[in-house]
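Subgroup meeting minutes
Present: P.N., E.W., G.H.
Scribe: E.W.

1. P.N. recapped why we're keeping a running log of single-chain structure predictions: easier to compare across weeks, and new members can see raw inputs and outputs side by side.
2. G.H. added today's entry (308 aa).
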Amino acid sequence: MTHHASQRGTLVSDNLPKVAWIGLGIMGSPMSENLIKAGYDVTGYTLEQDKLERLTAAGGTAAASIAEAVRDADVVITMVPASPQVEAVAYGPDGVLENVRPGTLLIDMSSITPQTSVDLARAGAEKGVRVLDAPVSGGEAGAVEAVLSIMVGGDQDAFDEAEPLFEALGRTIVLCGPHGSGQTVKAANQLIVAVNIQACAEAVVFLERSGVDLKAALDVLDGGLAGSTVLARKKDNFLNRDFKPGFRVDLHHKDMGIVTDAARNVGASLPVGAVVAQLVAGLRAQGDGGLDHSALLRGVERLSGTRV
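Output recorded in log:
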């Protein structure tokens, strides 16, 4: 087995699949870097030049187009904001499906509607391309630390092939069912996270208004039944009013649209989810769409008459 050293001295093994990575945003950049660290040959394409420079600095290869990125790939991973971007990247003469070799594995790790994933799998099958939907949870910190939860939809054999890649990116990796199932579980995840952040935000305003030491209160709450990964991860955001985006309100707004729409399609009632979806929409309308979703605290403050 021969190795060639990448710029960083990481060993790239010739018998590992060659990976094309499309979309190097808040999540995509650290995730692709974790694959490079694990020894994968990664060629990336994204719209922002500085992100391509970051990839090459980490030992990856920058491509000038999707077609160039995917031409020699064994596995193509897409990580873009929403369904329209997945469709733009996948379809059309310059897209993934027209430019990959048959037999390639396409893993979409974006969070999109379950139906978009089902349609993509069908279109892939016509080109001899196997498709998995594999959205993630864990935010920017989970991406950086490679401890993401990865929820997957698709066939067992494709999942088995992708599993070593997933293990370089995350900690909890589960095949949830057929195409679209990963997206359905991700939608449920986003419902729980949004409701949880909103509950924490309401508690923060209540505690502060009551004159309690907020840090002490959140520490003790986090140690009891009210504790959660959300509270542990977002405690400092609340305490410091630091809303630098790990996960933007705009994206959570999109996700709440996905979960409310998918729930309507299957006849499930989400009364609290619907309210929180509107609170997220309101936050966005107030100009806070670019902030971290922990900024739901700002919405509670506005409703409580606190000047934001």
